[in-house]
Amino acid sequence: MVFKRLLGSLGVGGPTVDTVLDPGAVRPGGALTGQVHLKGGDADFDIEHITLELMARVEAEHEEGESEGVAVFERFIVGGGFRLAAGEVRSVPFNGMLPWETPVTELYGQGLGIVLGVRTELAVAGAKDKGDLDQLTVAPLPVQEAILEALGQLGFGFKSADLEFGHIRGTGQQLPFYQEIELTPSPQYAHQANEIELTFLATPGGMEVILEADKRGGLFSEGHDTVTRFTVSHDGIEHQDWNTLVDGWIRQLVEHRAPHGSHGHEGHYGHHSGHGHDDHHHGGHRSGPGMGTAVAAGAAGLAVGVVGGMVAAEVVDEVGDFFEGDEEEEEG
What's the CA gap between 182 and 297, in Å, rounded? Predict the structure, then answer.
């Protein structure tokens, strides 16, 4: 589906814009490439700038409950400063870098229920139009895929994924939101945890892995949440025993008994180095309902499915319907 929208601020006879992303998924920290196709209107127009905005559907928690909205997390100016003649057809190529913390939207080609988009803003004669909107597909980094693969082989199942507005304390988080991947525990840990939540915060030099366990209560104790953080490198992935490493992380997470505020164990594994910090959980890092549905986890890795595929979602007034054109929609 290709979305083409007339510049609403200019009315009938204005230029049209159609942004086409290069095929295939991109990765966090990787290049986003494609073409912005322009077609002149009934008169000449001065194109002041063409800007791409990366957008995400996020969930926010507040006193009244949860709400959904849109966060713009990156902007690229890809062209401008030229006159588009009446009826002229022109293409503007672009090449922008995704933030390293860009959420992952698919695993092994299956959608996780995360909604990202690229919106094109065209500034013409002092008026701006935020019209063309295209779906953005992001595949995991190799180290992220290795960790998810290991979790699948260890018997953890995919439950859901969402984006939470806010900041995870004690981390180097840069974006105004973070991604949570919710997992059902493997049989080995089912008696200790109701759910495991996983967040990746990647940087050029490595990645923070935040694990949270919703721990089951005992006969004389209430359940509670614990959080553990580790760092991993992007290098030497093929030389690491990820199953053993990730199982050690989970074991430390669910079996940790240290008092509140204590530091976790300092660890070294292979030629990677990592550290963990454990504490009891206090607000702000709870998951909301996601769109994903658990399907399977087996020897081939974490198998993920979404019932009915990824569904376009209602969002704030700024963009109307995310991925549902309310003006002019054409198939391409």
Answer: 13
